[in-house]
C-alpha cells in the first residue's frame, strides 16, 4: 500500500534547547487516557528551573520544573514514548507557536456521499504512483510501472500497476481536458495516404513545442526491424542541461539505464560509489528505455510517453541533483515546468502515422493501456501474480515468488470494470470474471482466501497461518463491488462481496486497540504482539470504512470510523 504524507513529523528545537511539554505531576496517574498539555517555550518562563528526571526508574533526562509542573523533553522522550508529532512555527521573535498532533497523517474521508464504479476511485486522483521512489520507471514496452519495492531488479507489481491505472482514470474524470498540439511532418505522396508520413529509414527529426507543460507525446508507428528507435531531446531548465532519452528495441531488465559512464552503480541506488555532482553536470547524459524485441512489422503501435516522468527517472539513477525529498516533490529534483521538450527523432526503418501529438496530459490513453496489461498478463488461475518473494512478521510468514494478492485482484476488478464501462469491450468483462475464482480458492492452493472462525477473508498476503491484513481486504471488497454492478456478469462478484462484508462486520472490533488500529491479525496465528498500524495506515482504514459505508449503508462502519478519527486526535477508549 501507498503511505500518506509525514510533513508534520519533524524535530523541534528552540535555540538549541528542545521544546518541552508540560506534565502536571499530580495528574499523571489519574488523568485517564490523555496526553500532556502544551506549554509555552522555556525562554518565556521566568520561574522555570532545571531539574533531573528519571523515567521508569532507569532513564535519566534533563527536565525543567515550574512549581508542581514539570517539563519533559518532547523530541528526546515524549515523541517516541507516545508516538506524537509536533513542529515549531517561528515567524519572528513575537510570533512563535508549537503545533502538536497525535497523528502525523491527515485523516481524509470520501468527498462524495455516494459512489459509482464509473466515477473517480477514492482519492486516487491525488496519487503520483510513477514518482514513487520504489517505481524504477514506466516500462517503454508495456506502459506500466516497474517496481523495486522488494527486489533491486525491476519487476511488475500488480497492485502498483492497478493504482497507476486508477490514478489516471480518476484524473481523466476530474481534470480539465488536456491541451493538444499536432506536430507538422511531411507525408509520403507516393502511397496516396495523407495520414502516413514518409518512411523514416533516412532519419526523421521533428521540432517539439517548447512550452514546459506540454510534456507528453503520442504517436503511432510501425517499426520494420529491431534497428528502429526513437529519441526525445529535452532541456532540464533547472540544470541548464540537454538530455537525450532513447527508446530502442532491446530486452533489458533494468527498464531504464544511463548510457556510458555516469558515475553510478548498476541500478542507480548510489550506495556503492560517491556522487560527484560537478562531474555529472559536465557529462552529456543519454538515458535508454527498453522497448523489447517483439515486433510486428504489419501493425502500427501507439506510443504514449510522459517525458517529465522519463527524464526524472533517468536523473534519479545518477543522482544528478543533490536534493532531498523535502526540497523537491519528485525524484531527480524535477517538477512540472522544469523540463522543456526540444525534438523527437526517429532512426532505422519505420513508418509513422498522423497525427503526432504533444499534450499536457494523456490520462485516458494511459488508463486504457494499463487496463490492457491486465487483459494480456492474466495467468491460468485468473490472477496477476507477484513475481518476487515476500516475507513478513520477521520472516515467520513467507510467500514464494508467484503469489496472488486479494488487493491486486480487487484493484484489477476496479480497473477492468471502469475500462468496460468506458469502452464496452467484452475483453475486460471476461478478464474480470476469470479473476473471481481466486477469491474462493484457499491460500494453501494458490488462492487469496483464508478463513477465520469459518468466515472467509480475502488476503492481501495469503500466508499460512493467515495474516488478515485489514486495508488490503477492504480494497478487495471495493473491487468486488465494482464488478458486481456489471449485470449479469457480476452476480458471482456480488455474493463474494456480501460474504466479505459479513466477515468485516464480524471481525472489525478485533482491529480496534482503544487508541488506534492494528494493521493485521498476525498475532492470532503467530501468538506474538499485535502489529499496530502506523498513523498513515490508520488513516487509510478510516477512509475505507467511510467508503464502504457509502456503498452498503452499514452504520456500524461509520461508527467505527468516527471512533478511529477520535483516536487520531488523542482520544482513547475508557478503561476500568
Automatic annotation (TrEMBL):
GO MF term list: heparosan-N-sulfate-glucuronate 5-epimerase activity
**One GO cellular component, as annotated:** Golgi apparatus
Q: Which Pfam families does the record cross-reference, listed alphabetically?
A: C5-epim_C
Give TM regions.
none
- GO biological process terms, semicolon-separated: heparan sulfate proteoglycan biosynthetic process; heparin proteoglycan biosynthetic process
Name all D-glucuronyl C5-epimerase C-terminal domain ranges.
378-565
Cited InterPro entries: C5-epim_C, C5-epimerase
Q: What top-level branch of life does the organism fall under?
A: Eukaryota
Please name the PANTHER family in this protein's record: D-GLUCURONYL C5-EPIMERASE
Protein's name in the database: Heparosan-N-sulfate-glucuronate 5-epimerase
Origin organism is Panagrellus redivivus
Amino acid at each position: 500500500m501507498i503511505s500518506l504524507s509525514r510533513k508534520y513529523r519533524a524535530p523541534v528545537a528552540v535555540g538549541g534547547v528542545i521544546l518541552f511539554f508540560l506534565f502536571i505531576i499530580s495528574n499523571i496517574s489519574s488523568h485517564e487516557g490523555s496526553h500532556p498539555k502544551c506549554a509555552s517555550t522555556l525562554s518565556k518562563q521566568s520561574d522555570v528551573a532545571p531539574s533531573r528526571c528519571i523515567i521508569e526508574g532507569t532513564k535519566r533526562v534533563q527536565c525543567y520544573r515550574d512549581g508542581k509542573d514539570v517539563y519533559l523533553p518532547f523530541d528526546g522522550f515524549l515523541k517516541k514514548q507516545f508516538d506524537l508529532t509536533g513542529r515549531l512555527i517561528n515567524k519572528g521573535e513575537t510570533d512563535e507557536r508549537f503545533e502538536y498532533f497525535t497523528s502525523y497523517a491527515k485523516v481524509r474521508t470520501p468527498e462524495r456521499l455516494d459512489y459509482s464504479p464509473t466515477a473517480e476511485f477514492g482519492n486516487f486522483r491525488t496519487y503520483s504512483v510513477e514518482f514513487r521512489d520504489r517505481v524504477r520507471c514506466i516500462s517503454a514496452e508495456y506502459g506500466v510501472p516497474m517496481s523495486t519495492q522488494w527486489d533491486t531488479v525491476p519487476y511488475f507489481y500488480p497492485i502498483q500497476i492497478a493504482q497507476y491505472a486508477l490514478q489516471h482514470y480518476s484524473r481523466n474524470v476530474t481534470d480539465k481536458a488536456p491541451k493538444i498540439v499536432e506536430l507538422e511532418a511531411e507525408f509520403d505522396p507516393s502511397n496516396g495516404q495523407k495520414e502516413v508520413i514518409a518512411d523514416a529509414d533516412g532519419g526523421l527529426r521533428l521540432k517539439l513545442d517548447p512550452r514546459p507543460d506540454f510534456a507528453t507525446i503520442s504517436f503511432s508507428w510501425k517499426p520494420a526491424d529491431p534497428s528502429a528507435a526513437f529519441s526525445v531531446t529535452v532541456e532540464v531548465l533547472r540544470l541548464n542541461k540537454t538530455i537525450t532519452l532513447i527508446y530502442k528495441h532491446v530486452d533489458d531488465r533494468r527498464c531504464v539505464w544511463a548510457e556510458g559512464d555516469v558515475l553510478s552503480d548498476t541500478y542507480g541506488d548510489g550506495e556503492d560509489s560517491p556522487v560527484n555532482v560537478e562531474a555529472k553536470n559536465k557529462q552529456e547524459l543519454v538515458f535508454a528505455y527498453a522497448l523489447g524485441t517483439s515486433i510486428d512489422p504489419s501493425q502500427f503501435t501507439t506510443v504514449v510517453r510522459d517525458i517529465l516522468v522519463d527524464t526524472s527517472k533517468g536523473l534519479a539513477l545518477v543522482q544528478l541533483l543533490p536534493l532531498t525529498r523535502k526540497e523537491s516533490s519528485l525524484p531527480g529534483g524535477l517538477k512540472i515546468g522544469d523540463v522543456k521538450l526540444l525534438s523527437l527523432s526517429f532512426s532505422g526503418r519505420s513508418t509513422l502515422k498522423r497525427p503526432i501529438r504533444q499534450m499536457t496530459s494523456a490520462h485516458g490513453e494511459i488508463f486504457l493501456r494499463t487496463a490492457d496489461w491486465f487483459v494480456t498478463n492474466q495467468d491460468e488461475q485468473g490472477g496477476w501474480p507477484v513475481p518476487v518473494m515476500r516475507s513478513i512478521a520477521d520472516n515467520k510468514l513467507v510467500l514464494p515468488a508467484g503469489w496472488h494478492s486479494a488487493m491486486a485482484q480487487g484493484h484489477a476488478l476496479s480497473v477492468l470494470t471502469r475500462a468496460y464501462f468506458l469502452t464496452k469491450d467484452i475483453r475486460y468483462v471476461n478478464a474480470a470474471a476469470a479473476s473471481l475464482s481466486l477469491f474462493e480458492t484457499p491460500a494453501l492452493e494458490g488462492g487469496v482466501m483464508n478463513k477465520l472462525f469459518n468466515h472467509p477473508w480475502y488476503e492481501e498476503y495469503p500466508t499460512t497461518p493467515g495474516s488478515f491484513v485489514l486495508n488490503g481486504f477492504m480494497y478487495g471488497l471495493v473491487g468486488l463491488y465494482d464488478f458486481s454492478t456489471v449485470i449479469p456478469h457480476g452476480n458471482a462478484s456480488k455474493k463474494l462481496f456480501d460474504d466479505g462484508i459479513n466477515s468485516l462486520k464480524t471481525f472489525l472490533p478485533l482491529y480496534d486497540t482503544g487508541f488506534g488500529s492494528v494493521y493485521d491479525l498476525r498475532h492470532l496465528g503467530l501468538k506474538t504482539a499485535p502489529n499496530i498500524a502506523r498513523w498513515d495506515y490508520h488513516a487509510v482504514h478510516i477512509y475505507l470504512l467511510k467508503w464502504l459505508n457509502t456503498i452498503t449503508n452499514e452504520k456500524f462502519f461509520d461508527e467505527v470510523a468516527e471512533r478511529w478519527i477520535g483516536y487520531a486526535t488523542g482520544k482513547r477508549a475508557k478503561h476500568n
